[in-house]
């Protein structure tokens, strides 16, 4: 068995010694960093924008600039603060109806029998005839929501015919099983021969652009005639802007 040369033995010893020294002098691994809270302060001139979520309580004065659209959901509460004047008296509040209304009157005239087509044109040419349309807008441009007829007054004159009733028909689309509604108006005799009167309080609704039509119920022969002139009064409900 041959012995290793001394040079080779010295080289191996030097390598082992270098490896051992390397392990002993190596730098230890750094420890894991710990979390530190950070506070960010924004000045009032540059606030952080936030979005409100759910119900948000607001205190102090709230200003609204420009012309934004503000809507209230059902169930919202609005508080009106009525500040007193210099003498401690609160300012008077004006309570308005929620639905704006405007009064109206419509003059209608109908003739029948031998007077048909002649009496109303000669005596009541200013009337709307036997039919009138419910307006869509008021005289100042407001959109009409509905017409409410409250009173019907007038008179009838007979030329051999007697008028025993007038029928006022109109249309309503909302919550009505039939589109055409009728109101039967009784006609009573007066002290003057051949003259009859009409006066009745009613409650009849009509839609914009629908027709108001009166037609008489008469008794008499083919050569007889009659005519009636009535005034409808009430109010128009207008749409809230």
What attributes does this structure have?
10% helix; mainly beta; 5-stranded antiparallel sheet; 2 helices; 241 residues; 4-stranded antiparallel sheet; single chain; 36% strand; Jelly Rolls
Tell the overall outline: elongated
Please state the structural category.
mainly beta
Q: Which blocks of ≥5 consecutive residues have pLDDT under 50?
A: none
Give the CA-CA distance, first to last residue: 117 Å
What portion of residues belong to β-strands?
A: 35-45%
What spatial order of strands do you see in the largest sheet?
A: 1-9-3-7-6
* CATH architecture assignment of the domain at 104-238: Sandwich
Q: What's the SSE pattern?
A: HEHEEEEEEEE
What does this structure look like?
This protein has a domain at 104-238: Jelly Rolls, CATH 2.60.120. A 5-stranded antiparallel sheet has the order 1-9-3-7-6, with no helix packed on it. It has helices at 6-25, 119-123, and strands at 101-113, 131-133, 144-159, 162-171, 180-186, 188-189, 195-206, 211-219, 225-238. The protein has 2 helices and 9 strands, in the order αβαββββββββ. It starts with 5 loop residues before the first helix and ends with a strand. A hairpin with an 8-residue loop joins strand 4 and strand 5 (180-186). The mean pLDDT is 79. The protein is elongated, with a radius of gyration of 47 Å. The longest helix has 20 residues, at 6-25.
């Amino acid at each position: 068995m041959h012995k290793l040369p001394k040079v080779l033995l010295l080289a191996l010893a030097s390598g082992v010694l270098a490896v051992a020294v390397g392990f002993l002098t190596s730098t230890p691994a750094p420890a894991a960093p710990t979390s530190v809270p950070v506070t960010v302060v924004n000045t009032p001139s540059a606030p952080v924008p936030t979005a409100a979520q759910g119900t948000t309580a607001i205190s102090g004065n709230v200003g609204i600039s420009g012309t934004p659209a503000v809507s209230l959901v059902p169930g919202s509460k609005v508080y009106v603060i009525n500040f007193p004047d210099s003498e401690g008296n609160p300012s008077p509040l004006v309570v308005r109806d929620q639905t704006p209304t405007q009064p109206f009157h419509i003059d209608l005239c109908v003739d029948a029998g031998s007077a048909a087509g002649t009496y109303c044109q000669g005596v009541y040419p200013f009337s709307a005839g036997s039919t009138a349309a419910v307006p869509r807008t008021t005289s100042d441009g407001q959109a009409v929501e509905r017409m409410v007829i409250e009173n019907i007054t007038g008179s009838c004159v007979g030329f051999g015919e007697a008028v025993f009733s007038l029928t006022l028909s109109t249309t309503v689309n909302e919550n009505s099983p039939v589109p055409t509604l009728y109101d039967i108006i009784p006609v009573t005799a007066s002290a003057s021969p051949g003259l009859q009167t009409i006066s009745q309080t009613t409650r009849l609704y009509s839609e914009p652009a629908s027709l108001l039509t009166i037609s008489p119920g008469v008794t008499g022969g083919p050569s007889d005639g009659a005519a009636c002139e009535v005034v409808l009064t009430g109010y128009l409900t207008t749409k809230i802007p």
